[in-house]
Specification:
The complex is a heterodimer of chains A (88) and B (299). With 88 residues, chain A is of the alpha+beta class. Chain A has 3 helices and 5 strands. Chain A has helices spanning 32-43, 48-59, 65-80, and strands at 2-4, 7-11, 17-21, 27-30, 84-86. Chain A has a 3-stranded antiparallel sheet with strand order 2-3-4. In chain A, strands 1-5 form a two-stranded antiparallel sheet. The longest helix of chain A is centred in the C-terminal third of the chain and has 16 residues, at 65-80. Chain A is globular. In chain B, strands 6, 7, 8, 9, 10, 14, 15 and 16 form an 8-stranded mixed sheet that branches. In chain B, strands 1-2-3-4-5 form a 5-stranded mixed sheet. Chain B has a 3-stranded antiparallel sheet with strand order 11-13-12, with helices on both faces. Chain B starts with 7 loop residues before the first helix and ends with a helix. The chains are: A alpha+beta (88), B alpha+beta (299). The A-B interface holds A 8, 10-12, 14-18, 20, 22, 25, 27, 29 and B 240-243, 245-246, 249, 255-256, 259-260, 263-264, 266-267, 270-271.
């Protein structure tokens, strides 16, 4: 299970999202996919399989292996900057 | 009473002890120097600015002391900044020290490294790193009907998102000095100081109207990232707001200090502004292009 830290969001309908991580004070620019992943984790801690299904629903795409791989890559990148952490 | 209205000997005396205090927008400054030459140079640059009572507790406190032979030491809040600098670079370095000191403290503002000009009550914020033509463009606009708010910093009030003027002299470098002299013959430009680390530097005095209206904040309307290149055709290309926000954060002096309030102020700023990359080569073309933004805002 993975969960997100507290973040602030701004979005302007231009396909990119601005997020502020209150823990680190860092600001990040996210595309639609990475924003969908973080938004799902902000709602509740999820495992990779559940997360892939929910993100696929949100983006109206197939929950296939390619999406799961991309989500794993994003989780790793989010973990590197402290946006997410393992949930017990 | 302004700095320039004080009779010369009284002014020099005030600079010597206890130091001349004046107001630059939201900032109060004191400079203490026994050097009549430094006093006269600063009186030229800050002539129209209102003096403050000698006992004022100021935001920025500088000292400039002569060092034999013909050199100076510069102090900020009692800490030495330059130990022995030649006379030829003393004035630009006093200005630079004032710059650095001024923007380290006032964290009641979101401070963005940018020039700011205003027209029709709306501010255009021009964030840029060195070499992008920010100061040259700002000096040109300030002498063609736009009000100078600042050449160096957009001081944004988190409470209402307005830009507070800090209309200090505009520092021009090298070829820009002659360019502005030709472009705006009415501009008041101080002596040229060769041999600084940035090459020859001269200061353009802020137009009087800008100094007199230094308490009049403006509503941000445009964020324009200038990019000068010789012979460039003027172009205004929209920048997505999230990207504009990231670029502003990179150009801010105190974004990381302000935390959540900084993010909210930044996001509100880009929310209310149209954001553009602005490529330009000549000043006439540049002004024409920015006038287009102004006309569009009126309709």
């Amino acid at each position: 299970m993975i969960r997100s830290h507290e973040i602030l969001w701004r979005h302007w309908d231009e396909g990119e999202y601005l997020v502020y991580h209150t823990g680190s004070g860092d600001t990040h620019l996210l595309n639609v996919v990475s924003a969908a992943v973080l938004a799902e984790l902000e709602r509740r801690p999820l495992g990779i399989d559940q997360l892939t299904r929910r993100v696929a629903d949100a983006l109206a795409v197939e929950p296939d292996a390619e999406l799961a791989t991309e989500i794993r890559r994003l989780i790793s990148a989010f973990d590197d900057v402290g946006l997410v952490e393992p949930a017990s | 009473m302004t700095v320039g209205e004080l009779e010369r000997d009284r002014r020099r005396e005030r600079f010597r002890d206890p130091g001349m205090c004046w107001q630059v927008g939201p900032l109060s400054v004191r400079v203490r120097t026994p050097s009549p030459w430094i006093a006269d140079q600063l009186a030229f640059l800050y002539g129209p600015f209102p003096t403050l009572a000698r006992e004022t507790i100021v935001d920025v406190e500088l000292g400039v002391e002569p060092r034999w032979p013909g050199r100076f030491a510069i102090f900020a809040d009692g800490e030495v900044q330059y130990r022995r600098i030649p006379r030829a670079v003393a004035v630009p370095l006093v200005e630079w020290t004032l710059n650095v000191s001024a923007f380290q403290r006032p964290h009641q503002f979101f401070l963005l490294h940018a020039a700011v000009v205003e027209i029709d009550g709306f501010a255009a914020i021009l964030p840029a790193r060195a070499g992008q033509g920010k100061s040259t463009l700002c000096a040109a606009l300030a002498h063609r009907g736009w009000r100078l708010l600042s050449d160096e910093v957009a001081a944004i009030r988190p409470e209402d998102g307005r830009v507070v003027p800090v209309p200090r002299p505009i520092s021009l470098k090298e070829g820009s000095i002659e360019l502005i002299r030709r472009f705006a013959p009415d501009a008041r430009i101080g002596p040229i100081w060769p041999g600084t680390s940035k090459g020859a530097v001269a200061h353009v005095l802020p137009p009087l109207d800008s100094v007199r209206r230094a308490e009049e904040a403006a509503v941000p309307r445009w964020i324009v990232f200038p990019r000068w290149a010789p012979d460039a055709v003027p172009s205004l290309d929209p920048v997505p707001k999230a990207r504009a926000a990231m670029r502003c954060a990179d150009n801010a002096f105190n974004y990381s200090v302000l935390g959540r309030s900084g993010f909210e102020t930044l996001a509100n700023l880009v929310d209310r502004c149209e954001c553009f990359d602005f490529g330009y080569g000549g000043l006439d073309d540049a002004l024409h292009c920015l006038e287009g933004l102004r006309r569009a805002a009126r309709t």
